[in-house]
Write a structure and sequence with these properties.
Layout: H1 2-14, H2 23-33, H3 37-70, H4 72-85, H5 94-101, H6 105-129, H7 133-141, H8 146-180, H9 189-198, H10 202-230, H11 232-239
Keywords: Cell membrane, Membrane, Transmembrane, Transmembrane helix, Transport
Membrane topology: Multi-pass membrane protein
Family: Belongs to the binding-protein-dependent transport system permease family.
Length: about 240
């Protein structure tokens, strides 16, 4: 952070401190914005869109990845579609989403969830398929049912992969959030950044950027916390 601050300061001095404000000025403007209602309204709207999209992506993609990774017939049927559409840049579908779901939150949440969901789906599916057969044999040899295999082998093996995809996807979610809030909206940190940029209010622009960075860090830590709660055995093993 110190190095980043020094580089920012040097760049601001080189540019005269107009287009790129000095870091102390940007931080002071950000601290002032934290005491205003309008900033937290923008922050709340963006956080609602990002969190809802992440929950939606996880709720759909993780079970589907688990299903595809554990049932060969389902994987043979669905995997070609997933891997053919995975490289397609989904952001180009934003106009379609706006037409189908309207200009409100639904289209923006669906866009973020679609992009993040693919990452969770592919990572979870690959994680399940990499499980060594001996773990299945161990449970079955003890008389375990399909439910026991799911509970004792599949879910514990898939959860770390799903949470890793979720943690890595926080940056993607915030980036897509900024993009979708640049269109057809008057609320959110993305709108705040673009509005301030259009008005040449660079301190306001950096206030939005710092707010979005703060939200991205909070989402990452939230995902990290959930992983620690859901995958406790992994962290116990590391401590030992």
């Amino acid at each position: 952070m110190v190095v980043l601050g020094l580089l920012w300061k040097l760049a601001a001095m080189a540019l005269g401190g107009v287009i790129l404000p000095h870091p102390e000025d940007a931080l002071a403007a950000f601290a002032t914005a934290l005491t205003t209602r309008i900033f937290w309204e923008h922050f709340g709207v963006s956080a609602y869109r990002a969190v809802t999209a992440m929950v939606l992506a996880w709720g759909v993609a993780f079970p589907l990845g688990l299903f595809m990774g554990s049932v060969r017939r389902a994987d043979a049927l669905l995997a070609p579609f997933v891997f053919l559409t995975y490289p397609v840049p989904k952001i180009v579908l934003l106009p379609v989403f706006l037409l189908l779901l309207g200009l409100g939150d639904a289209s923006k949440i669906a866009m973020i969830a679609l992009i993040l969901g693919y990452q969770i789906l592919v990572t979870t599916r690959d994680g399940v398929r990499s499980i060594h057969p001996k773990y299945f044999d161990s449970v079955r040899s003890l008389g375990g049912s399909r439910w026991d295999v799911l509970r004792e082998v599949l879910i514990p093996a898939a959860l770390p992969h799903g949470f890793t995809a979720l943690r890595l996807g926080t940056g993607v979610s915030v980036a897509v959030l900024f993009f979708v809030e640049s269109f057809a909206t008057t609320r959110g940190l993305g709108y705040m950044i673009m509005d301030a940029w259009g008005a040449m209010n660079y301190l306001g622009m950096f206030t939005g950027i710092l707010g979005m960075s703060m939200m991205g860090a909070a989402l990452y830590e939230a995902a990290n916390f959930l992983e620690r709660r859901a995958c406790r055995w992994m962290f116990l093993r590391r401590k030992a």
